Amino acid sequence: MTTSADEELLRRAVAIAAHAVTLGDAPYGSLLAGPDGAVLAEAHNTVRRDDDISAHPELKLARWAARELAPEVAARTTMYTSCQPCGMCTGAIARSGLGRVVYALSTDQLVALNPESGAWPEVPQDGPALLAEARLPIEAYYRR
């Protein structure tokens, strides 16, 4: 359930996305707000500019939060983002311990507006394999 305060911060994320376009960057913007609604950090997509496929604003903010915020603070934050986070960003958000995400445009809505956005191919994966060998470094690390 979103509130009017959520909508105001979400509008700011959309404005960040719009500003990114004026800079020649892709139209995605995000911000991270503390429990009191104060903006802690902002970012926009710089995939093309940085020649970095991981330069999504949600990932940048999740990494920032993991580095800069205590876990109990991160858990009380909300990320506001112009589009629903992709799988890569969703994983980073979960690992960073952020408390909530509010987005303006769903992935399905994005693909309807720009069909190329949903044109990622499925990559085959094979495994698991070599359990006896692969478990050794894992066990060594976690037994410390």
Describe the structure.
- It holds the Pfam family dCMP_cyt_deam_1.
- GO terms for molecular function: catalytic activity.
- This is tRNA(Arg) A34 adenosine deaminase TadA.
- This protein is α+β, with helices and mostly antiparallel strands and 144 residues long.
- It is globular and about 50 Å long.
- It starts with a helix and ends with a helix.
Helix content: 40-55%
- Strand proportion: 15-25%
Question: What shape does the CA trace take?
Answer: globular
Q: Which residues sit in consecutive blocks of at least 5 with pLDDT less than 50?
A: none
Q: Radius of gyration, rounded?
A: 18 Å
* Topology pattern, helix = H, strand = E: HEEHHHEHEHH
Q: What is the helix tally?
A: 7
Largest sheet: 4 strands, mixed
Mean model confidence by pLDDT? 97
**How many strand elements?**
4
GO molecular function, one term: catalytic activity
Pfam family, one: dCMP_cyt_deam_1
Protein name: tRNA(Arg) A34 adenosine deaminase TadA
